[in-house]
Amino acid sequence: MMTKFLRDKIAFLLTGVMLAVLLISCQPVPVAESQSPKATPTTATFPPVASPDGELSAAPAKLPPLPYDYTALGKAIDAETMKLHHDGHHASYVNNLNDALKQESGLQKSSVEALLRDLNSVPENIRTKVRNNGGGHLNHTIFWQIMSPEGGGEPTGEIAQEINRTFGGFDEFKKQFNQAGGDRFGSGWVWLVRNPAGQLQIVTTANQDNPIMDGAYPIMGNDVWEHAYYLRYRNRRAEYLNNWWNVVNWPEINRRSQVSLQLAS
Ligand SMILES: [Fe+2]
Predict the structure, then answer these.
(1) What is the whole-number distance in angstroms between the Cα of residue 63 and the centre of ligand 1?
(2) Residue 175 and residue 190: Cα distance in Å, rounded?
(3) How many whole angstroms from 4 Cα to the centroid of ligand 1?
(4) Residue 179 C-alpha to ligand 1 middle, in angstroms?
(5) How far does Cα 173 stand from its chain's mean position?
(6) Distance from the alpha carbon of residue 9 to the mean position of ligand 1, in angstroms
(7) Which of 21, 214, 218, 249 lies 20 to 30 Å from 178, alpha-carbon distance?
(8) Which residues surround ligand 1, an ion (CB under 5 A)?
(9) pLDDT truncated to tens, each residue of the chain (265 aa)?
């Protein structure tokens, strides 16, 4: 037989437990991380695209010096083309971008890459100008670095192995890259990118668009605008695409590929 003392003790304990449960249930519940689909990575999470030094300033944009002499890439590109391309075309993209942004001091605080990733934040009246000239500035800044007077030959390092795994060998990769560059109608670029799923992929872009506008990281790219080859190769784009491999800077492309892995991590 349970004594009255024991019944009172059990009732007291049960009341305490119920009060504790009530108190706990009133506490705010921690909110789980959103499981919504990933948006295009923000500036804070997108790995540096223009160079190891970081993103391109728009306050104001500046023409980077060519990292070698105009004659240095003669195995593929003549000196006159290099001079016109860098001092003329690239300089124009920089000047035109600064001209577009001169009335938009708020936008000058963004990097060129951030503007291209979020063109909807750019007023409509200057959006196309920012897209074309910001893209032109970024694309050419990358282009000068992924070529070298000591370039060419077979790829080395991690990128060589990944190219083999993805495309079945360097020759097949070159063939597909050249084909895509040749098939790009009008003016544009052919790229090897790391796509948002973390895979290597060959893509082309029109005009001066850059793959970051689609959330992909540009590892290497070739300029197939006529201004890139017409003086020496005339209308023979395929010959230019083929010779271009003689100046490809594999150490820099390996570095970019390693940086691009942050996109998928
Ligand atoms: Fe160009």
Answers:
(1) 14
(2) 12
(3) 95
(4) 19
(5) 20
(6) 87
(7) 214
(8) 223, 225, 228
(9) 455 555 665 555 555 544 444 334 434 333 333 333 334 555 557 999 999 888 999 999 999 999 999 999 999 999 999 999 999 999 999 999 999 999 898 998 999 999 999 999 999 999 999 999 999 999 999 999 999 999 999 999 999 999 999 999 999 999 999 999 999 999 999 999 999 999 999 999 999 999 999 999 999 999 999 999 999 999 999 999 999 999 999 999 999 999 999 986 6
DSSP states of 150-206: T--SS--HHHHHHHHHHHSSHHHHHHHHHHHHHHS-SSEEEEEEE-TTS-EEEEEEE
Torsions phi, psi for 223 (to 5 deg):
-85, 120
Dihedral class, residue 194 (left if φ above 0, else alpha if ψ from -120 to 50, else beta): beta
Place of tokens 């003790």: 9
Residues whose CB is less than 8 angstroms from the CB of residue 174 and which lie 6 or more positions away in sequence, other chains included: 245
Tokens representing 167? 């495309």
